[in-house]
Amino acid sequence: MIAPDPLYAAAGCTAVAALLLAGRDRGRGRARLLLAGGAVAEPDPWWTWERLLSAVRTRREWLCVPVALVLAVLGESVLPLIAGAVAVPLVGRRLKAVRRARESERRAEAVVALCGAVAGELRAGLQPAQALIWAAVNTRALGAGEAAVTAAARFGGDVPQALRGAAREPGADGLAGVAACWRVAVEGGAGLAAGLDRLEAALLADRDRREDLRSQLAGARSTVGLLALLPAVGLAMGGALGADPLRVLFHTPAGLLCLLAGGALEAAGVCWAARIIKGGRR
């Protein structure tokens, strides 16, 4: 049986490394202030609850490490540490995909708001360029392309081309429709406000379809989450009954075989369910 002392040593080394990294960051900040010719103020405490909560929100994948460390100490094995190290990049990739999806949804909502805002300002008497600039600043729907679009609108540039460039960002596909409405209104004399109203109605209908699909897939998502939590529930129940499942899994040949087989089946089940959800979304 592996003694738990190396595990505690690993935890201590991790804490010392974090302290050294924090001290290095503070030293870099003082050096930048000195090179910039500014006064060196007393640095803020490197550890506060607010900073800890902010780090947890932005780097949630690193929560796998303390969980793995607890399991390693309880089970007196290094296998959870290895699994935790492998899980950090995988969980981080998944969380990044979730954040990108949420950002795409927020951008799509902002594009809908942009269409309504431009149409409203046109009816209030503003010129198209002025209405677009005002709406872009207030809705933040253009993202990184805001500077190019506002510059084209302010100085007489190619506004549709700038809008199509901004439409390449995730969730901003509706800006291509705004560009088409703008070009038709400028070249053919059609009403820009009426075209934006129709575009806004189409984008809202598309959003309603996405929300309906999300509600229909909620049951499948719950099944995937339940599937992922079942092993933890089984371990907790075994520990409550006094069976010591961690010792069996980490220190017996049959337990190691069950751990490998169960992990493979768990991963296959989650991937299969996620693929079904992705296919339904398509």
TrEMBL record:
Residue ranges constituting the Type II secretion system protein GspF domain according to the UniProt record: 117-237
InterPro entries reported for this sequence: T2SS_GspF_dom
Protein biosynthesis in keyword set: no
Coiled-coil segments on the chain, per record: none
Keyword Cell membrane: yes
Compartment(s) of residence: Cell membrane
Superkingdom in the source lineage: Bacteria
Keywords: Cell membrane, Membrane, Transmembrane, Transmembrane helix
UniProt-listed Pfam families: T2SSF
Listed transmembrane segments: 65-92, 224-242, 254-277
GO cellular component, one term: plasma membrane
Topology in the lipid bilayer: Multi-pass membrane protein
PANTHER family: CONSERVED TRANSMEMBRANE PROTEIN-RELATED, INTEGRAL MEMBRANE PROTEIN-RELATED
Name of the protein described by the UniProt record: Type II secretion system protein GspF domain-containing protein
Source organism per UniProt: Streptomyces inusitatus
Lineage, broadest ranks: Bacteria, Bacillati, Actinomycetota, Actinomycetes, Kitasatosporales
